[in-house]
Design brief:
The chain is mainly α. The protein has one domain: MFS general substrate transporter like domains (Growth Hormone, Chain: A), CATH 1.20.1250. α1 crosses α9, α3 packs antiparallel against α4 and α9 runs antiparallel to α14. The longest helix is centred in the N-terminal third of the chain and has 33 residues. The radius of gyration is 21 Å and the shape is globular.
Length: 456
């Protein structure tokens, strides 16, 4: 059950969890509306819109391992990961607003370039916060079940962020029906304010004075080599990362498709709010339940159960290809209940993997390297969701438009939207169960491992 001596104060757990208002918000709102913003307000072709979002995310993937190594070096040199987190926390809100501040009158090409540059800048600042943020739980406690507690509350705040940004963002945008570009800008400013609060509060929890030496690379190439090294040396990490990437791809695809489902399947652009409410209400209730399940049957078994439930929900959603309607809110609710477990448990398993690596490699602290590779994989999965959607839209003949022009979509495009929200994610989730079966780390393998804990 872990040492039981490193239980974190509630205030510290809360401050760490509040960071998810920022990380969850940034992951949710662009994933939900950015492709739609490009195709239906700026007149950018579907494939080009997908390429813009993907390019920014590819950049994120490339820099994450480097930032992970830099985070370890900063920890060794200053005694805290806080400095890097603060830079990201201050820069991300500004870059986020710029992403949705495209001036009126620009053509599709110039608008696309504007969004690409601003979103790449936002992705850079996000990585500077997110990578050290993910490394913290392994350093805050050495207790196996306490990590589940920490990450459970983080997922509660993550689901709140999804609700605030996924439902509230489009509602802010809808306040300006006659000027969609202004609506997007107001949405971005409101979102940026919440981002800043969440990120800055979480920075205060970064501990000081590491007790253990940190091996740090001195060059970009070394950072990449260290990332490859942890992948090669840690089999549990490989299995967990592949599983999380596949599930990130599935959920990223559904997130990107949600706005299109609302507009073209339910024939109501504002229905995206109802979709998010159906997703988030069960997730908020179930996050603490998944902790209890994990304590009883183990994190990996609970994770498998959550994945199977989400898979069932996507298979039921496939019926909307033939019978679209508001009934889809029910399986979306089931997906929400499962999603809480699919977030809580793998993120609670990651610190276990890091602690296990620490105990089997002579006391090396490679938390930043692990979190950098993890963030790169998570980002790649979510980014490819928008890419897959844009490819499906292009192949099925989706018609892009500008804010002041209405389009009629062909039947094939409507089918493509429905499949992107159901059958394709179902296949990806089934594959993730295969990779999860290769995760062999259990509670008894973690108990007694040496600690990475850093006193505050």
């Amino acid at each position: 059950m872990g040492s039981g001596v490193n239980r974190m104060p509630r205030g510290q757990v809360a401050r760490y969890a509040i960071g998810s208002l920022g990380t969850g918000g940034f992951a949710t709102l662009p994933g939900l509306v950015l492709v739609y913003y490009l195709t239906d307000s700026l007149g950018v072709a579907a494939l080009a819109a997908g390429a813009i979002v993907t390019a920014a995310k590819v950049w994120d993937v490339l820099i994450d391992p480097v930032i992970g190594g830099v985070s370890d070096r900063v920890l060794a040199r200053t005694g805290s990961r806080r400095r890097l987190m603060l830079i990201g926390a201050l820069g991300l809100p500004v870059a986020f607003v710029l992403t949705f501040a495209v001036p009126g009158g620009l053509g599709p090409v110039a608008s696309g370039v504007w969004v690409l540059v601003a979103f790449m800048l936002a992705a850079t600042f996000f990585s500077m916060f997110q990578v050290p943020y993910i490394a913290l739980p392994a350093e805050l406690t050495d207790d196996y079940r306490e990590r589940t507690r920490i990450l459970s509350w983080r997922v509660v705040l993550l689901t709140v962020a999804i609700l605030l940004f996924g439902a509230g963002g489009p509602e802010l945008r809808a306040l300006f029906p006659d000027d969609p570009l202004l609506g997007y800008l107001v949405m971005a400013i409101g979102a940026a304010a919440v981002l800043a609060i969440g990120l800055l509060v979480a920075c205060t929890v970064a501990p000081q004075r590491p007790l253990l030496p940190v091996r740090a690379g001195a060059s970009i190439a070394t950072h990449y080599r260290n990332g490859i090294l942890v992948l090669r040396e840690s089999r549990p990490f490989r299995a967990l990362l592949v599983t999380f990437m596949l599930q990130g791809l599935a959920t990223g695809l559904m997130l990107a498709a949600a706005q299109f489902v609302a507009r073209w399947i339910l024939n109501d652009e504002t229905a995206v709010t109802a979709l998010f409410l159906a997703l988030i209400a069960p997730a908020l209730l179930m996050a603490p339940v998944w902790k209890l399940i994990a304590d009883r049957v183990g994190k990996e078994r609970g994770f498998r159960l959550a994945t199977a439930l989400f898979l069932l929900a996507t298979m039921v959603l496939a019926i909307m290809v033939w019978a679209p309607g508001w009934w889809i809110l029910a399986p979306v609710g089931l997906a929400g209940a499962a999603y809480a477990g699919m977030q809580t448990l793998p993120m609670a398993m990651l610190p276990d993997v890091i602690a296990h690596d620490h105990s089997t490699t002579g006391g090396q602290n490679r938390s930043g390297v692990f979190s950098g590779v993890w963030t790169a994989g998570e980002t790649a999965g979510m980014a490819l969701g928008a890419t897959v959607l844009s490819i499906v839209l292009a192949l099925t003949g989706y018609i892009e438009t500008t804010a002041d022009v209405e389009a009629v979509q062909p039947a094939a495009a409507l089918t493509g939207i429905a499949v992107s929200f159901s059958l394709v994610p179902a296949v990806l989730l089934a594959l993730s169960l295969v990779s999860l079966a290769r995760y062999r780390l259990r509670e008894q393998d973690i108990i007694g491992t040496s600690t990475l804990r850093i006193p505050v």
